[in-house]
Design a protein that fits this description.
Layout lengths: L40 H8 L55 E3 L5 E3 L4 E5 L3 H17 L2 E4 L3 H4 L4 E3 L2 E4 L1 H13 L6 E6 L1 H5 L2 H9 L3 E4 L17 H9 L11 H8 L1
Parallel strand pairs: 3-4, 4-7, 7-8
Antiparallel strand pairs: 1-2, 5-6
Helix pairs in contact: 2-4
The protein binds iron/sulfur cluster.
The site of iron/sulfur cluster has 12 residues, from α1.
């Protein structure tokens, strides 16, 4: 029995030709026909190659797993109780929802004060992250919690300026920090700046701490199935070449004349 959906998914914009008749081992149609245009992942990858690595439509989605886990929280019933109280007096007039105190602090010394004990996960350089930064950053700020600015924001910002390979200004990073600060109340919460390998190389956290007054940072070691780093698609040759100059791995090599000619034709 397989618990994973095989060979066809909305995440890859693929389908089986025989949707009601699928091999459970491979996810292929029970009868794979010569001449099929290749609607499934196996067929489509034969035409599109490495592009099938990306969830699609690329750039405007976030993705979730389709795996059928054999156990989930719906298998448990959580029962409350009507007697006793923890963290507050056993008094029906005082043990009210608004009286719940979830404040906490994280970090060294006196720490960063949180009104609620969670941090909003890092939102990086992608369009999805940038477009939703105002809602998430302002929401985190007025909630009194933390939010992290994710990887590659400086590197992908074509307005960023560098000296000796280190960032000295990034309007995108500055905008994200300032937006959180404008809505932060009573010093609760904090905006973190994450760094992956390239951010570290470009001195992003040093810049954020010294120039933007950021008090907390996060080192990125991996994400889900990725061990490290992220991937983006670049549609602009000049941008691809600039990213390569900034130290990013860009494939195929945008400085190679064969690649340039292929891109331009
Ligand atoms: S390539 Fe074969 S398995 Fe894939 S959709 Fe077509 S018929 Fe089905």
């Amino acid at each position: 029995m397989t618990l994973t959906h095989l060979n066809a998914s909305a995440a890859t914009l693929t389908k089986n030709r025989t949707e009601d008749s699928i091999s459970p081992f491979s996810g292929m149609c029970t009868t794979c026909v010569d001449g099929c245009i290749g609607m499934c992942e196996i067929g489509k990858s034969a035409y599109r190659g490495a592009e099938m690595i990306y969830p699609q439509p690329f750039g405007i989605i976030t993705t979730a797993s389709q795996k059928d886990y054999p156990v989930d929280l719906s298998h448990f019933t959580i029962l409350g109780r009507a007697a006793g109280a923890w963290g507050i007096e056993e008094d029906s007039n005082r043990a009210l929802f608004p009286a719940v105190d979830l404040e906490t602090t994280i970090g060294a010394d006196n720490g960063i004060r949180y009104k609620l004990p969670f941090t909003v996960a890092a939102m990086g350089s992608t369009n999805v992250a940038k477009n939703n930064w105002p809602g998430l950053a302002v929401g985190a700020a007025i909630t009194g919690t933390g939010i992290a600015i994710g990887e590659n924001v400086v590197g992908m910002d074509m307005d960023s300026r560098f000296a000796d390979g280190k960032v000295i200004s990034s309007s995108d990073l500055e905008w994200r920090v300032q937006l959180f600060r404008e809505w932060q109340t009573d010093g609760y919460g904090e905006v973190f700046v994450q760094a992956n390998v390239e951010d570290t190389m470009l001195g992003v956290q040093e810049y954020a701490i010294k120039k933007l007054g950021v008090k907390a940072v996060e080192l990125k070691w991996g994400q889900g199935a990725k061990d490290i780093g992220g991937e983006v698609k670049i549609k602009d040759l000049a941008k691809a070449q600039e990213l390569q100059k900034r130290g990013y791995v860009v494939l195929p090599n945008p400085s190679n004349h064969v690649v340039i000619e292929a891109f331009l034709t």
